[in-house]
Structure formats: C-alpha cells, structure tokens
C-alpha cells in the first residue's frame, strides 16, 4: 500500500495549492507521477490521508481518476483522531499533527506492508522500486522491520534558495542512527551551507 499524506491541501482546492500545480506536459500533478511510479514498482493500493471536509472535492478531482488505475481508500486526519490521553493536553491545536498522526489515521485500513510519502514531493521511480523490494522481502529481526529511502543531499538542493532536509546519520552496518531536521540549507558554489557553515557533500 502507498500512503499519500495530502491533508495539507486547501479547502475546495483554491488557487496556490502546491500539491495541485501542474508539472507535466498534459497537466499532470506530482501525485500522478508518484502513483504511476508506485504501480510500476508493484504497489496495488493507495490510501490518501486527507481532511474530512475535502473528501468530496478530492474524490472528484483526484480520486475518481486514480480509481481507474489502482484501489483507492481514504483516511481522515482529524484532531479528534488521537489517543484519548492526549486530547485534553492538545485541545487548543487547530491543525493536523503531521506524519505520526497521519499514519495513525490509517489504522484499520492497512493490514499489509506500506510506504508513506508526501503529496507534493517527487521521489523518482527508483525510490519506489527500492522500497517495494524491502517491503516484500522477509526480514528476520526482533523488532518490526522498517526502512527509509534516503537521497544524497547534493541531489536535493535548490538553485532558488534554502531548503529543509532531514540529515541522516547511518552506522557502518547501514542502520539509521539519527535524523536531524536542518533548516535553510543553501547551495553555494557546489557546497551546502547552513548558517554559514559548510557541509561536506561527499559525506552525506
């Protein structure tokens, strides 16, 4: 299953919604490419995580088109959909809670290995192939097996300003040790710079 986090799409899909900006020659949006690549890799189900108030518009504009290619389901990321013990603590929050709650919203819909992506990021077909291979391989371990598809930092920098990236630290046996969310990484003269500190691009 491919889980697409799309709860950030604006109400009734007004102007300026980045997830819906055409990027392809025939008006394709990034989600079209993501789902196409996932299907080619072997995925056969997609769960869109959206807000409940977007369901009708989302289904008309995106869902019905996708249902012709792949099995589609919806999970709703709502503030009420959190464990009871946390509701009082965070009752003033006005927006969805991000990745953790988005995945929790899928409880009951997914009973198989799954991959989580953002609606507005382009990952490339190789990312889906690598993830699918891992998800369909039996793993002998003491904990629930999980993986993350990483990218070389210099391949993700922008010529148009700073970006935010999760800088990953990996052990010698290829285990993920740490992720540091790093803001405003700028590309300068083929180097990555954060707060005027140069990052060695050959190391990450």
What does the model show?
- 22% of the residues lie in helices and 24% in strands.
- With 204 residues, the chain is α/β, with parallel strands linked by helices.
- The chain has two domains: 2-142, Spore Coat Polysaccharide Biosynthesis Protein SpsA, Chain A; 150-204, no CATH class.
- The strands form two sheets. The chain has a four-stranded parallel β-sheet. A four-stranded antiparallel β-sheet has the order 5-6-7-8, with no helix packed on it.
- Helix 1 crosses helix 5 (125-135).
- The chain is globular and about 45 Å long.
The domain count comes to 2
In order across it, which strands form the biggest sheet? Answer: 3-2-1-4
Helix and strand string, N-terminal first? EHEHEHHEHEEEE
**CATH architecture verdict of the largest domain:** Alpha-Beta Complex
Mean pLDDT reading: 87
Core attributes:
204 residues, alpha/beta, Spore Coat Polysaccharide Biosynthesis Protein SpsA, Chain A, 4-stranded antiparallel beta sheet, 5 helices, 8 strands
Summary?
This protein is an alpha/beta fold and 204 residues long. It has helices at 30-41, 55-66, 84-87, 99-104, 125-135, and strands at 2-5, 45-50, 71-76, 115-118, 163-170, 176-188, 191-194, 197-199.
Topology of helices and strands:
Blueprint (H helix, E strand, L loop, with lengths): L1 E4 L24 H12 L3 E6 L4 H12 L4 E6 L7 H4 L11 H6 L10 E4 L6 H11 L27 E8 L5 E13 L2 E4 L2 E3 L5
Parallel strand pairs: 1-2, 1-4, 2-3
Antiparallel strand pairs: 5-6, 6-7, 7-8
């Amino acid at each position: 299953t491919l889980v697409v986090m799309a709860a950030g799409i604006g109400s009734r899909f007004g102007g300026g919604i980045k997830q819906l900006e055409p990027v392809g020659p025939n008006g394709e949006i990034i989600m079209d490419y993501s789902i196409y690549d996932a299907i080619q890799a072997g995925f056969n189900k997609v769960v869109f995580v959206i807000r409940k108030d977007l369901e009708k518009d989302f289904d008309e504009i995106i869902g019905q088109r996708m249902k012709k290619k792949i099995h589609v389901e919806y999970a709703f990321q709502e503030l009420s959909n959190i464990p009871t013990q946390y509701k009082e603590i965070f009752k003033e929050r006005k927006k969805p809670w991000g990745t953790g709650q988005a995945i929790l919203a899928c409880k009951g819909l997914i009973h198989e290995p799954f991959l989580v992506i953002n609606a507005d990021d382009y990952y490339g077909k190789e990312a889906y192939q690598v993830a699918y291979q891992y998800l369909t391989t039996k793993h002998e371990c003491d904990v629930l097996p999980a993986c993350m598809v990483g990218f070389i930092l210099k391949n993700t920098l922008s010529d148009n300003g700073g970006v935010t990236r999760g800088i990953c630290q990996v052990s010698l046996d290829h285990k993920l040790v740490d992720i540091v969310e790093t803001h405003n990484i700028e590309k300068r003269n083929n180097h990555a710079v954060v707060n005027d500190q140069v990052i060695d691009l050959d190391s990450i």
